[in-house]
Amino acid sequence: MSRRPGRAGAPAVRRLGGTAMRGDKVLRDPVHGLIRVPAEIVPVVDAPELQRLRRIAQLGMSFLTFHGAEHSRFGHALGAMFLFGEVADQLGRLGVGLTPEQRLLGSLAALLHDLGHGPLSHALEAESTGGLGHESWGRRILLGETEIHRRLEALDRELPERIAAVLEGRREPLLHHLISSQLDVDRMDYLVRDSLYTGASAGRFDVGQLIHVLGGVHEEHPVVLHKGVWTVEEYSSPATTCTSRSTTTRPRAAPSGSSRRSSAAPAFSAGRVSSPVRHRWLRSFSARRGWRSTSSWTTWSSGWR
């Protein structure tokens, strides 16, 4: 996948998938470049409940330390939707294509996954949202008598409930794992976005390469090819983990050994594993690689839960 000079990890060709249609909108994103929003999703993007995210700080009060961190949840929502389309394209090339209905459902779920965030995002989540998490408020907005609910119903009467079910992991497990797991478009976007706006080097990795080394699906989780281990290490490096914990307080699980659904080639699964199993796997992997010490890997995995 080609890259645009000077913008590490940003694919040069940017699309949600399919052929451009009349009514599509093209937005310029500082992280991913041009993002095409299909005509059927444009009314959802324009809904006041989603536009509200323009006024919700992505990193809470981090702008007091990193004065460039003035970006909003709205840009992150669009970035997650865009990356979902990129991942769907890659899976399609591997013969694990999503149906048009799944693609629309997944794109909307990625777009709306942070719909319930309150002022300053995670920083004041328990204080400013009545003790409820942003996931609970997002469900209320999706299923309540809201403008965005009506616009989603105009596409499909069951669409609001289906989106809520995907975000909660109650249906379409593959879509759920692509949006919220250890290897997901939410984390891919917020790491590179937060890194760009804060100016911090931690959190930078090659998004395009990470998507390129996806090798298929195993037990409804995306997996990466063995040749992509270094890309995964960059994505889940100690510095990246530290950044994600300090800015979003959402550490993720470590990768476990797995196999590709359509091939016997070694790959890594996004399944969650316990700490003892994780450490045994890391020691075994280090031994196969000929590494003498696993102290850095132990430190790397110790922050996960």
Question: What would your notes on this structure say?
Answer:
There is one protein chain. The protein is an alpha+beta fold. 47% of the residues lie in helices and 9% in strands. It contains 15 helices and 6 strands. It has helices at 42-45, 48-51, 73-93, 100-112, 125-128, 134-143, 147-155, 159-168, 173-179, 185-198, 207-212, 229-235, 238-248, 275-289, 295-302; strands at 25-29, 33-37, 214-218, 221-225, 256-259, 266-269. The protein has a 4-stranded antiparallel β-sheet. Strands 1-2 form a two-stranded antiparallel sheet. Helix 4 (100-112) packs parallel to helix 9 (173-179) and helix 10 (185-198) crosses helix 13 (238-248). 42% of the residues are buried. Mean pLDDT is 77; it is low at 1-18, 238-283 and 289-305.
* Estimated structural class: alpha+beta
Tally of alpha and pi helices: 15
N- and C-termini, Cα separation? 33 Å
The fraction of residues assigned to DSSP E strands is: 5-15%
Number-wise, the strands total 6
- The poorly predicted ranges are 1-18, 238-283, 289-305
Q: What strand order characterises the main sheet? A: 3-4-6-5
SSE string = EEHHHHHHHHHHHEEHHEEHH
Give the helix level as a range of percent. 40-55%
Average pLDDT: 77
Q: What's the Cα radius of gyration?
A: 19 Å
- Give a quick account of the main beta sheet: strands, pairing sense, barrel closure: 4 strands, antiparallel
Overall geometry comes to globular
